[in-house]
Amino acid sequence: MNRNDPSVCARCAAQGEVCCRLVPGHEEVCFPLSDFEMSAIRDVTDAKGWFTGQENTAAFVTNLCRLFPGEEKMVRKLFPPRLSHFRLATRSNGSCALLGDAGCVLPQQVRPYYCRLFPLWTVGRQIMALGPECLAIRETKSINKLLGAMSLSSAKVFDLHARLRLAWGLPPKHGAPVVTLRLQREKQ
Length: 188
Hints:
The chain is an alpha+beta fold. The protein is 36% helix and 12% strand.
């Protein structure tokens, strides 16, 4: 986000509080990061400390189950208790470690899928809005206007959501077979 950019996200960042903050003490519910997402971030940044390990707490798993209704069993299998996952690091005030004065310091195409989607989410073939505090939601009256404000098409939202699902270990859409990505070494 850039303060000179008239986009709704840039205007929101210029106002101060943005979606890139968690309530201090509730960091456990922050979305997980895949190895792919962390690698992409590492490729464009020189600094370290953007990620932190987080236990798969009951609150975290419950939050993910809400995001993926009907897939609770798979979510619980992917994020079992007493194990952990990586998430974005946060500062003491709850803001994302990658949040700069003018918004996210990462180029749009490198940001985690969840960040690129927010405040949008899909369930089945329906696109819905999350986070009533979002300036884009407050300024728009429909999903189509929200998509326009976010410079996204419905096709792009479904594509990003499918990529997020794959990155987190879920099939690209609810009810699809599980896909396992493997790198095969050639025999030498």
